[in-house]
Design a protein that fits this description.
The structure holds 3 protein chains of 3 kinds. Chain A is α/β, with parallel strands linked by helices. Helices cover 38% and strands 13% of the residues of chain A. Chain A has helices spanning 11-19, 25-43, 51-66, 109-116, 159-166, 183-189, 223-233, 276-291, 307-322, 340-351, 354-367, 373-393, 419-423, 430-435, 464-482, and strands at residues 46-49, 78-82, 120-125, 172-177, 192-195, 215-220, 263-267, 295-299, 399-403, 439-446, 452-459. In chain A, strands 1-3-2-4-6-5-10-11-9-7-8 form an 11-stranded mixed sheet, with helices on both faces. Chain A starts with 10 loop residues before the first helix and ends with a helix. Chain B is of the alpha+beta class. In chain B, α4 links the parallel β12 (222-227) and β13 (257-262). Chain C is mainly alpha-helical. Chain C has helices at 7-16, 23-40, 75-80, and strands spanning 64-65, 85-86, 89-92. In chain C, β2 (85-86) and β3 form a beta hairpin. At the A-C interface, α9, α10, α11 and α12 of A face α1 and α2 of C. β2 (60-61) of chain B pairs parallel with β1 (64-65) of chain C, so a sheet runs across the interface.
Chain lengths: 486, 480, 99
């Protein structure tokens, strides 16, 4: 068996080698399982590792290759799935006690697409319960640790998926992003993380947090892998009414185009809040793109600063409704009681953690009679303002750059008992979800304590091509600075 | 008009609005591909969407929209761009703990339904929504929710497409309410949108009932649920009106509440007070997109509508020279035999007699009866000419219907029917009077019953050939 | 943004959401929610009178499926995952105080 170091590390490399018959999928898988054995007890990226199922899937891929058939563009690529995506017959928990032990009777569309492309699912990754959080501390099954510093959080809510890639447990992984839950942990774990345009990837089988904001996207070691994964999981799905019925251009094909002539926007009225080390890396990113031939332009997004307010009224409102189905009647946990109403109360109070209950109450309040107009109704109008501000900015710029996270990974417990302090972690990522636009976090050097910093590249609706061109250019600049050849 | 005077009860006017839920006759559910079928084994038509499983997403059934648009068009509604909302409430037969319904932008608005007598009842809206599952209450007494030990839920019905048709409060009598539901059902069947069976629950009626003094604002209303037949609807409304009037006349006030009709004791009972009603927290369903029927689609739906019952009645009534809500027109159109009556007329028959014959003798026949229109036309011609009495015609018709057709002249001849002259008939009447002096005396004293014996005697004497009407007329004439 | 949020308000909201909180939890939640709503009052400064609410991130309309039956889930598999099932149906405690 080959050791981890000799095998290709990226999905592109693995798939190419497996399809060419140069390496076996089972060997790739065993190398990753060995890595999981070595460090998972420290990192706790997974709620569940499905080693046996993965071995069978990898063997099937190898059999395909041996039979002269092409297993697909992700042949033999070990992939980790955030534990809020339904996997048929495999427990799916959302890191909540209320779903502990539940085995969905169906696969999410993305799960089916990955399998059809030859990917090998290795396990379900940890998250903040129901994706509500920015540190993965809110998991009912304990926090995930940042592979770069086990004393720090990996970010969240897709902390397990980010950590799984950063730790080499999987070549790539999927997360979901409602207000930054892919981009912020990607930044904190030093991997690439992409939230596509709303509707780019099917949400069918993704356990909803906030339906009008949720999108699934990839984590990967590099930009090319993220593009490959999006090419596989993107596209129209008749099972999701909000899925965009268009064929998306291949993103893998645009990475080498460079950024000559690309207009890169600097938001002059961006809310303050980023640490100096993060701010410094953002400036370096502007410099790198300028040096690569892009034009840097100033743009304004006046409503940017109101995004947090709009988000924390809209997302909890939708969540309060989406999470009402966890009622102890048809699946999952039940705490018995004398009558159905008492059973609902007992089940939901015992099954949901404190942050989830807090957001359900906030959202219920925002929608309730007498408060709807002042809370939810107003928030929807602020959402429009933010969307329109961005649309205006994108008349002058093809992409925008901001920090992905205001800081590098922070120590456990750093945000204390104040929910608002945690909410501010998503300051720079939330507006994108409200606008329905794509954005990605690209690792761009290190900040305080040598920890990774991510730069966020934002684009307008279906602006993935420009976004990936810019992301690839940033990555090339970093590789060049580190002396790595592409 | 004297009729409105007639509708008042001790000077109180009844005001009723009806909310009718109908299950659409689609193959699948409103938002998922499980079968929409009644009566199958429990939980055999379930899927992730139906069960509200985590991660499931709704996708709108085009045919459900088409049928809902048909209903809107048939009820003279404006069909408009619309959206779906979530109505949030917890109930074990509501899988997601929210119902996807339409709220401030429904598909169909501002229509009306005309009752057979021409009374126009406004239709405020007819919107799409999903049905719930079904709870069965176990233990306790008689399957009631109160005192039950536990409940069992079957989700086959969950997600079945419904159209909720909300009338304006234009109904003023229990009879009008019955007529509205009967007419609405006929329209739904005509456009093939629903099988509209109240007994199977594919058509469900809730009544908003209030009373007031004419000229004053409407009274506080109560919503009556659990009405399972047209007959019960009338009874429930009459009971509820009486209850409210009794309260008001003793100085009490009406509490706005939902009341449950109990078929057994013939009363309505408090179900829940509206004051502590749930706060449904309606908001736009983010998993669905707006529904914007194109003008072409709307036009196509309207163009494909069949002739509706009201128009069919008007057509038949005008051809037959009778009023549209006459019993014969009503029942013949209800059976769909109006085209047949018109075909008999087209074959040269007398439409008035054909209408009566079809009404009387074709109740068990399909919409297109087996008897060739020409045969019935020939029969009416024999009647018009006086060759057959009404009684003889009936006998001939019975045989034609039994055989699925036949030449009426030949059947009449075989039965020995021939026209009887008035002189011979008068002699038989005199004979009958002479034979039954007691009956004659009673008849003369005004005992209508006695006439039967006399007519019967004449019939016997004539071996069934006498025209009953003529005999009655002769008896009355002789009485003076 | 509305005035202050009290433990009584929170209790009402919790009941609507079918959550059961102890008095101490209500107190704590009221304090936290109040702090959030105070922060969210920043949007009260905006003039939103001419702004249309945004309800769709990507403008789609008329998304349909055809009315064709697709075989659904296996009843036994689904009922096996239910908290309590009986006679091929989902069993719940008595339904009172709901209807």
């Amino acid at each position: 068996m080959s050791s981890h170091a000799e095998l290709p590390r990226t999905a592109v490399g693995i798939a190419a080698a497996v399809r060419a018959g140069e390496v076996r999928a089972v060997d790739v898988l065993e190398a990753h399982l060995a890595e999981i054995d070595r460090r998972e007890h420290q990192v706790h990226a997974f709620n569940l590792v499905v080693a046996e199922q993965a071995r069978q899937a990898a063997a099937r891929v190898d059999a395909e290759v041996a039979a002269g058939r092409d297993p697909g563009p992700l042949a033999g690529v070990p992939v980790a799935l955030k534990d809020n995506m339904c996997t048929r017959g495999v427990p799916t928990t959302c890191s909540s006690k209320i779903l502990e032990g539940w085995k969905p009777p169906y696969d999410a569309t993305v799960v089916a697409k990955l399998a059809a492309a030859g990917a090998v699912a290795v396990g379900k990754t940890n998250l903040d319960e129901f994706a509500m959080g920015s540190s993965t501390e809110n998991s009912a099954f304990g926090p995930t640790r940042n592979p770069h510093d086990l004393g720090r959080v990996p970010g969240g809510s897709s902390g397990g998926s980010a950590a799984a890639v950063a730790a080499g447990f999987a070549a790539v992984s999927l997360g979901s992003d409602t207000g930054g839950s892919i981009r912020q942990p990607a930044a904190l774990c030093g991997v690439v993380g992409v939230k596509p345009t709303y509707g780019y990837v099917s949400r069918y089988g993704l356990i909803a947090f906030a339906s009008s904001l949720d999108q699934i996207g990839p984590f990967s070691h590099d930009v090319r892998d993220a593009a490959l994964l999006l090419d596989v999981i993107g596209g129209h799905d008749p099972m999701d009414s909000t899925s965009i019925p268009l064929a998306h251009p291949s993103l893998v094909d645009v990475l080498d185009r460079g950024v000559e002539g690309l207009r890169v926007g600097r938001i002059v009225d961006l809310p303050e809040g980023a640490d100096p080390d993060v701010q410094e890396r953002l400036e370096a990113a502007f410099d790198a793109l300028r040096a690569a031939g892009a034009a840097i332009v100033d743009v304004e997004v006046p409503a940017f600063g109101y995004a947090l307010t709009a988000y924390y009224l809209i997302a909890p409102a939708e969540a309060s409704s989406n999470l009402a189905r966890f009622d102890g009647v048809r699946f999952g946990m039940r705490v018995d009681a004398a009558d159905t109403n008492a059973m609902y109360m007992a089940t939901r109070s015992a099954g949901f953690g404190e942050e989830v209950q807090r957001r359900i109450m906030l959202g219920t309040y925002a929608l309730s009679a007498g408060y709807y107009d002042a809370c939810y109704g107003r928030a929807l109008k602020v959402r429009r303002l933010i969307h329109d501000d961005f649309e205006r900015a994108y008349r002058h710029a093809d992409v925008l750059l901001t920090p992905a996270s205001p800081s590098v990974a922070f120590p456990f417990g750093a945000k204390g008992d104040n929910p608002l302090a945690m909410y501010l972690c998503d300051l720079y990522t939330i507006p994108t979800n409200l606008a329905g636009h794509p954005a990605m976090s690209v690792p761009f050097g290190t900040g305080a304590d040598g920890l990774p910093v991510g730069v966020q590249v934002l684009a307008g609706t279906l602006g993935e091509v420009a976004m990936f061109r810019a992301g690839a250019a940033l990555e090339r600049a970093m590789d060049a600075a580190r002396g790595v050849s592409a | 008009m004297s009729e409105s005077q007639h509708d008042l009860i001790n000077g109180w006017e009844l005001v009723v609005g009806l909310e009718v839920h109908v299950e659409l006759a689609t193959a699948t559910k409103l938002f998922s591909a499980s079968a929409n079928r009644f009566g199958d084994a429990p939980n055999t038509h379930i899927d992730p969407v139906t069960l509200g499983l985590p991660g499931a997403l709704p996708v709108l059934n085009r045919q459900a929209v088409e049928l809902a648009m048909r209903i809107g068009a048939a009820l003279n509604c404006t069909i408009q761009p619309c959206t779906f909302h979530r109505k949030n409430y917890f109930y074990p037969d509501m899988p997601k703990a929210y119902q996807i319904s339409q709220y401030d932008q429904p598909l169909n608005i501002d229509g009306h339904l005309d009752l057979p007598d021409g009374t126009r009842i406004g239709v405020e809206r007819a919107h799409l929504e999903e049905d719930t599952g079904k709870s069965t209450h176990m233990g306790g007494t008689g399957g009631r929710i109160h005192g039950s030990d536990y409940s069992l839920i079957d989700f086959n019905r969950a997600g079945v497409p419904l159209v909720e048709i909300v009338s304006r409060p234009d109904i003023r009598t229990a009879e009008q309410a019955r007529q509205y539901v009967t007419e609405l059902r006929a329209v739904l069947l005509a456009v093939e949108a629903s099988d509209a069976k109240m007994e199977e629950g594919s058509m469900r009626v809730d009544a908003n009932v209030s009373v007031h003094r004419p000229g004053t604002p409407f009274g506080t209303r109560c919503e009556i649920k659990n009405v399972n037949s047209v007959r019960s609807l009338g009874r429930a409304i009459e009971y509820e009106a009486r209850r409210q009037i009794d309260l008001l006349e003793t100085g009490d006030t009406i509490r706005q509440e939902t009341r449950h009709w109990d078929e057994n004791d013939g009363r309505t009972h408090t179900l829940r007070s509206k004051e502590d009603a749930d706060d449904y927290r309606y908001f736009l369903e983010p998993d669905l997109v707006p529904l914007v029927p194109s003008p072409e689609w709307i036009a196509a739906v309207e163009a494909a509508l069949p002739l509706l019952p009201g128009a069919r009645r008007a057509r038949l009534a005008s051809a037959a020279g009778v009023v549209a809500h006459s019993e014969a027109v009503m029942s013949v159109v209800e059976r769909g035999q109006d085209d047949y009556v018109l075909a008999v007329a087209a074959a040269g028959g007398d439409i008035g007699r054909a209408l009566v014959h079809v009404k009387e003798a074709f109740a068990d026949e399909p919409a297109t009866p087996r008897v060739p229109p020409a045969d019935l036309a020939a029969l009416t011609t024999l009647e018009v000419s006086g060759a057959l009495t009404a009684t003889q015609a009936k006998a001939v018709l019975a045989e034609i219907v039994a055989n699925g057709g036949g030449d009426p002249a030949a059947i009449a001849a075989a039965k020995g029917f021939e026209a009887m002259d008035t002189g011979a008939l008068e002699a038989m009447v005199d004979q009958a009077i002479a034979d039954q002096p007691d009956a004659w005396a009673k008849f003369c004293a005004g005992e209508g019953k006695a006439m039967g014996a006399l007519v019967g005697a004449v019939m016997k004497l004539s071996q069934g050939k006498a025209d009953g009407k003529l005999v009655t007329a002769l008896l009355n004439a002789k009485k003076g | 943004m509305p005035e202050r949020i009290t433990p009584t308000d929170v209790a009402k909201v919790a009941r609507l959401a079918r959550l059961e909180l102890t008095p101490a939890q209500l107190e704590r939640a009221a304090g936290q929610l109040d702090g959030m709503l105070a922060h969210f009052a920043d949007m009260d400064a905006l003039d939103l009178s001419d702004v249309q609410p945004m309800t769709q991130p990507y403008p789609l309309q008329n998304v349909f499926r055809d009315d064709v039956v697709v075989e659904g889930l296996d009843r036994d598999e689904v009922l096996a995952a239910a908290p309590v099932a009986e006679d091929h149906r989902f069993r719940v405690p008595p339904i009172v105080g709901l209807d």
